[in-house]
Amino acid sequence: MKQTALLARAALLLAITAGCSKKNKGPAPALQGLAAVPASAEVVVVADVPRVIDAPLVQRAVDQLLAHDPDLATRWQKLHDTCKLDVGQLSHITLALGPHPGPQPGTGPVLLVATGKLSETELATCVRNMVGQGSGSVVAQDWNGRTLYEAKEGNRLMYFAFSAPDTVVMGSNEQFVHEALTTPGKKALDNPDLKRWIELADQKAPLWAAGKVDDRVKQGLVRVTAGQISAGPTAIAMSGDLAKGIKLDMTLVMANPTDAKALESFVKAQQGLLGYAAQAKGMGKAVDAIQVSSSGDTLKLHAELSTEDLNRLVSALDGGGSAAQDSPPSQ
Prior knowledge:
Blueprint: H1 2-14, E1 43-48, H2 49-52, H3 56-68, H4 70-82, E2 90-97, E3 110-116, H5 120-131, E4 137-143, E5 146-153, E6 156-164, E7 167-171, H6 174-181, H7 192-200, E8 207-212, H8 215-224, E9 235-241, E10 246-253, H9 257-279, H10 284-288, E11 291-295, E12 298-305, H11 307-317
Antiparallel strand pairs: 1-2, 1-8, 2-3, 3-7, 4-5, 5-6, 6-7, 8-9, 9-10, 10-12, 11-12
């Protein structure tokens, strides 16, 4: 949940970069998308903005997030009032999560890479205007042929720089941002494990992700299966299309083929039990839509629901019950 909120905050902040398309021709080589993600990253999430931004499920998620986080809603309104916003000018957003420094998972550095019709001048001016309303400041310095900006507001700190004329890199960890801007330097596809996980995802999908699985999830899955698997999944790769409901593909990389087969059997058994319970809520079709299969050390899951099916599922989860199944989808 913490990482979901962080992703939403970062994605909303990116909206301030949309503006005129003035070019910044620096001497450093261009780094775009995955080419800017450090090899030390453990998780990568990529969104094709034009194909994702208008999806009903995404709009609902953002609305719910803003409704439950007053501070985020206030900051979003501040962005809207201060800067020229046009999210449609963004083409791709890449989120990378680095390794956590201590025992607490989910505390690693986060990097955001946005590509589109962006302007360094517009971004720097917008951020300077925003933080300048209080005791904040924006400081620019040369770093390896690029201008690296440090924006500070209260206890918040962010670094950003243009790694290509149409690409901005930003994050709160200076070292992680430095790794992203370093050329030559080891990047995501130079990490053999991360490269394999990325290749398991459909990179042509509107939304895809790949990365290492949290140790807590791995251990939890062993407990849930009552020891039917020897270890939880090492990594996960996902791809999705939310334009007409939801189409989701997920691949779990297990410790060995035996575990993959055992988890397939466990999931199918649970799916049967869940199907019976789901009938009472009119959600049987959602359970039946899940397809499970194993191949080698991987377990694959596929689910596809129409907009109508998804609305019925959301209605049931919201407490609407079966009576809400025939209601028209709400905006």
